[in-house]
Amino acid sequence: MTERSLAAPPRLLGTRLTRRIRSLGGLLASLALTFLGLLCITFLIGRIIPIDPALAIVGDRAPAHVYERVREELGLNLPLWQQFFIYVGQVLRGDFGTSVLTGRPVLEDIARVFPATLELATLGILIGVIFGVPMGVVAAVHRDRWPDQLVRVIGLVGYSVPIFWLGLVGLLVFYAKLGWVGGSGRLDFFHEGIAPSVTGMILIDAAIAGEWDVFRNALHHIVLPAALLGYFSLAYISRMTRSLMLEQLNQEYITTARVKGVSEARVIWVHALRNILVPLITVVALSYASLLEGSVLTETVFAWPGLGRYLTNALLAADMAAVLGATIVVGLVFVGVNLLSDLLYRLVDPRAR
Amino acid sequence: MSETLSTAGWRAWLLSERPQSALQARLGQAWLSWNAFQRNRLAMLGLALILLLVLVAAFAPWISPYEPNVQNLRLRLQPPGAAHWLGTDELGRDILSRIIHGARITLYIVTLVVVIAAPIGLLVGTVAGYFGGWVDAVLMRLTDIFLAFPRLILALAFVAALGPGIDNAVIAIAITAWPAYARVARAETLTLRRSDFIAAVRIQGAGAFRIIGRHIMPLCLPSVIVRVTLDMAGIILTAAGLGFLGLGAQPPAPEWGAMISTGRAYLLDQWWVATIPGLAICLVSLGFNLLGDGLRDLLDPKRRGG
Amino acid sequence: MAALLNVDNLQVAFRGPRGEVPAVRGVSFSLGREKLGIVGESGSGKSTIGRAILRLLPDSARVTADRLTFEGQDLLGLSPRALRNLRGRHITMVMQDPRYSLNPVLPVGDQIAETLRVHGAGGRGRELYRKVLDILEAVQIRDPERVYRAYPHELSGGMGQRAMIAMMLIADPRLLIADEPTSALDVTVRRQILSILDDLVSRRGMGLILISHDLNLVAGFCDRVLILYAGRVVEEIEARNLHACRHPYSRGLLASLPRLEQPVGELATLQRDPAWLDGPVYRFGEEVSR
After folding, report:
1. Which of A129, A215, A304, C114 is 20 to 30 A off residue B250, Cα-Cα?
2. Which residue in chain A has the smallest CA separation from B292?
3. What is the pTM (predicted TM-score) of this model?
4. What is the residue extent of each domain of chain A?
5. Residue C124 and residue C211: Cα distance in Å, rounded?
6. B278 CB near a chain A CB, below 8 Å?
7. Which among B160, B92, C16, B291 is positioned nearest to A327, based on CA atoms?
8. For B9-36, what is each residue's pLDDT tens digit?
9. A252–C151: do the CB atoms touch at under 8 Å?
10. Domains contained in chain C, CATH given
11. Any idea which fold A112-352 has?
12. Chain C: nearest CA to B231, how far in angstroms?
């Protein structure tokens, strides 16, 4: 067998630093390109609407010269590529247009509703990680035996259930029949407006203000939708954890640890788990971002005043500026989360340092 | 006695370590795969659920007890009972019959999405993987852009632009579905591209597209099929979500997601109107997930023969 | 000399989709404080023997033996707890490739210290650190403090294998199984690794099982050699008498080695005979019928 050296070639600090900057630059460039692609898609979606935006403003009985003037004001007479550049410029300046539904700038609307979604998704991912990772590990360790099958079925059911339906059933059972949780919305009516809005996340705002009644009420309301989102991310996280663990448990260093007399629990929870931490970050980041998707339907069911409900309301009212604005923000969050997970990756993995 | 002997003979022939022909080897391999698949009870359950869906959809007019869209306001919101096994909805329509006919819509959506998205994904993936270089860079950047969007939201935006309706929903879902298949096909192509038999075909003078079409695509097909099967549930759920939001199939079509949406108003007192279509969605997507999971285990070389 | 390890009629079979596949078929030997070589081609079951002794085989393996004892202790009947106590402290193993056998995300020093720590030996803090540095020096690492903090990917193959040996010897075991310890290494460092092993094993009075496909290496290093064919010991012989081996397979292995003093145009290829699967075997030059 030929020699395959373990050592990287000797590196000077300077070259290492430039390489890191260069690779980071490449990453940023590719993310910027992805974002530009997103804008391209939303722009095209905006173009294929059967409704003529100019006509929508002036009405179909307006004289031709008024219609033409509005078309020019909207830039609709320019070539498509110029319109695209104008569009990109607007988006970069944070100008997503004005919502027909609320009459306010779309960005302002989004800034107002986004904290509610953030709060819900964050609690959801916490639930997903706290239950999903141990479940995946246990499944991998007991591969093909009953714990594995159980975790597999729990996960597959999570992949198979329509989230809006499970939300309705949850409301029926835990709210209407058992009365364990609060119903729709973020708070009961008489708790609203007590805690001043600082972060927009009610749990945090209530804690800051020391309004523990409000806090408890908010928790009552958020626990069901968050558990629901948590279940869906758990399905993905447990499955990915399982397959990552299986890969590690077959590695030779696991045998080494056993040869040393390390207990099985330590082999699994220290040696193997430490090695899946890095890819697991990506998994968690991805499922965090996809909770935004789950939140569209969940928020509709729970009348949760977040980005998802804003988007669906805009959809139903054919408020395209709001739809595309919300879509861009979601895409931006996706891209941002990807960037973040990549940065964390570099931080945690000794081989990437 | 002789019968058991001959089956034993077949088994031995199939499992022979030294197959005499390519056919024997392939049949033997298929037999082993089927054996392994059969032992996976969950996957068999999934297969049974999907066969059930197909049969119900095929024979819907004959097995459904009532017409799905005939209203009878005197019998509205009846609980499940002898006359209406699964009860009636707010317009007095039989829910069981609507579920049975809804199977056709589900199957229609799933089939159409796959027919549109799978070939696109396969083509993009194999071309990108085979040619490499800038072709690969451009095509993969394109798929990355689509993958960067959460699927439902992109589909929502498309449907918002195209207008609600089942065919627009299909187009929107297909547009969001192909990139995943392209990724799988590309990964498979990259490993195939460097193999000796492809080199041999190339030396014989075959053109690039002939190689891709005749030699690479067929070999990519199994993994793409697994990916598609695993994706089916996602397609069904996205379609149901669009229906639930009123952007998919329009009334009075008995689409399951739309049925949940109308049943929502009666959730607290007439639970069955919203609950039962949801169960139907669960069963069908669970069926596809179980089947896809079993198929993936089968194709995963790490698990083979282990 | 009291035997450390007694192996009598060891059988290992793996359950597969086509039924059980035997990997080790009736292997017997005993080992004192000496160096025993086990030689065979890949697939001959030599690694399986080493892993069976440490009970490292997966659940799909069926391991039976008339006797498998370490210092009189029955290895097959050990409880998980007793087994953990035995591993690392009494019997250890050095594996082939340090790129895979070291945990990539833990500093090397911590991995070495862990052997002592899990056995509650070696104290804590500075004392433990000192011991790790000592053992790193013992495997001739010149810069032990740097290696302590290094991650496995920052070490060369030879350094990695030294760290591996340090990890396996720090708790003073009495038996070391070295499974192809130099095969993954550069030819130039193989000698050094072997001499480090030789030195430490002799000085500490340990038993060593060296598993290898390399007849030359084993002949030059060990006291006694077992030649394995298809999971069966076809010949056991003193290393110094290896030239006088009698089994056709052993002779075939010898003949296929290149020799400086008698250059030949073409090396002999091994002709395998199905009869070897249950034909006669040889012990120290005598034919033994089984």
Report:
1. A304
2. A156
3. 0.83
4. 112-352
5. 35
6. yes
7. B160
8. 777 777 777 777 777 887 887 887 788 7
9. no
10. 77-288 (3.40.50.300)
11. MetI-like fold (1.10.3720)
12. 30
